[in-house]
Specification:
Blueprint: E1 3-11, E2 17-26, E3 31-35, H1 42-49, E4 57-62, H2 72-79, E5 82-85, H3 97-102, H4 111-119, H5 124-132, H6 149-163, E6 167-171, H7 179-195, E7 199-204, H8 207-213, E8 216-221, E9 224-229, H9 236-242, E10 249-252, E11 255-258
Parallel strand pairs: 3-7, 3-8, 5-6, 6-7
Antiparallel strand pairs: 1-2, 1-4, 8-9, 10-11
Helix pairs in contact: 5-6
């Protein structure tokens, strides 16, 4: 499933402009990281690409279709083909983990099967397999309000892994995780995207994770695309300029590291515990 934006702009109801003149083409099966400082428009971009926010200007095309020209039913079916991972997973606290993971396929199930699964999970084995990729299988039948923020974030990742969508959109999907778990979670998502040939777009604040796992890096600043390059072409100076509003430190997963500590021309990933 391909994604395109043409001169897309977004102004929120409070008058804040989140996106301005964004034009992008993301091919089916492509893997893209969106990086930039807080308030750069990363979350808004992901939501527009997933047809959960309608741009106020320009055009969005998903799989060759304008989602906002579809009927309500057709739009629901389109959204069911897209898996979304939120920074704070919108999971009801009393829900069991197994049910939260199985919710990834609600868009494909009948109403009857969905209701029955609330009482007797219809595919506990499938949910356990998804959780096992994230070292969370032992929490399968726990209530979600018994989990930490990082565990809930991994449940959100497991839900999309179980869903097997054609497009995976992730908004800061590992922000609450330590470096080892963040790396493990992204590895699972990347493997799934490759196995199922899914398009994968993730907004990330951590520069090192973006450079390690994604062959295309889009830098966002003030709602605009600052650069769109492969990792090898993303220089230290470009990153320093992108994050200028956050000081002289570049954001890495769990740690703020000075850009002077990186190699002379290109920022390379080298974190403890990573290959």
């Amino acid at each position: 499933m391909s994604l395109q934006l043409l001169d897309a702009g977004l102004v929120h109801a409070n008058g804040h402009r989140a996106l301005r003149g964004v034009s992008l083409e993301i091919n089916a099966g492509e893997r893209v990281a969106v990086i930039g400082p807080s308030g750069a428009g990363k979350t808004s971009l992901v939501r527009v690409l997933g047809a959960s926010l309608r741009p106020t200007e320009g055009q969005v095309t998903i799989a060759g279709t304008d989602p906002w020209s579809l009927s309500a039913g057709a739009l629901r079916r389109l959204r069911a083909r897209i898996g979304v991972i939120h920074q704070s997973a919108p999971i009801p606290p009393r829900l069991r983990v197994v049910t939260a993971v199985l919710a990834g396929r609600l868009g494909r199930w009948s109403v009857w099967r969905s209701l029955v699964s609330l009482a007797a999970p219809s595919d506990a084995t499938g949910a356990r397999d998804a959780l096992a990729l994230l070292d969370l299988e032992d929490r399968l039948f726990d209530r979600c309000d018994h989990l930490s923020g990082g565990q809930l974030q991994r449940v959100g990742v497991a839900r999309v892994l179980y869903q097997r969508p054609e497009v995976m959109l992730a908004d800061e999907p590992v922000s609450a995780l330590d470096p080892t778990l963040a790396d493990q979670s992204l590895a699972a998502l990347v493997a799934a995207s490759e196995t199922y040939k899914a398009t994968f777009v993730a907004s990330l604040h951590a520069v090192d994770l973006a450079l390690k796992w994604f062959p295309r890096i889009i830098g966002m600043r003030n709602g605009e695309v600052a650069f769109d390059r492969p990792p090898a072409a993303v220089t230290r100076d470009m990153l320093h300029e992108l994050y200028a509003t956050e000081g002289r430190l570049l954001p890495y997963q769990g740690v703020e590291q000075q850009h002077e500590e990186r190699p002379a021309n290109v920022v390379q990933l080298k974190r403890p515990g990573c290959q």
